[in-house]
Amino acid sequence: MEISVSRKTHFNAAHRLNVAHWSEEKNKTFFGPCNNANYHGHNYDLIVTVTGEIDLETGYLIDMKYLKDIVKEDVEDRFDHKNLNLDVEDFKTLNPTAENIAIVIWQLLRKRLENKLKLKVILYETERNFVEYNGN
Ligand code: NI
Fold first, then answer.
1. Exposure winner among 46, 69, 113, 116, fewest CB in 10 A?
2. Is 113 helix (H, G, I), strand (E, B) or coil?
3. Could you give phi then psi for residue 118, rounded to 5 degrees?
4. How far does residue 13's CA lie from ligand 1's centre (Å)?
């Protein structure tokens, strides 16, 4: 019996989208306001979904307390109220787009889960714009 368990969370962070080896003009044209030199903020929403076979003895797929704790440690503590470009090691050389943030989050959480569990993250950058990553 395959089942999914999700944890929803939220963090606020600032970022600037920029390709270092592009000209200022090209960055401005391509990224628009997201290239603003003094950064801008987003209220990110994140849904982390773990999928796998239910443990018939306990009735659990995963301990939701554990899922809550790893999302707090690996995502909230790491990203909330941070400037992603300046404060977060992962984005020193990686453009902090919603796509890349979702991939970084997936990679962090993947290490904390048993191999038999599948993982998917959905990251909302705005209410209407979101990206989804499942490791493929
Ligand atoms: Ni932005």
1. 116
2. coil
3. -90, 155
4. 9
Q: Which CATH architecture has domain 2-133?
A: 2-Layer Sandwich (3.30)
Residue type at 85? Answer: N
Q: Give domain limits for the chain.
A: 2-133
Name the pLDDT band for 128 (thresholds 50, 70, 90).
very high
| 2 in active site | no
Say how many Å lie between the CA of residue 100 and the centre of ligand 1: 12
Confidence of residue 121 (pLDDT cuts 50, 70, 90): very high
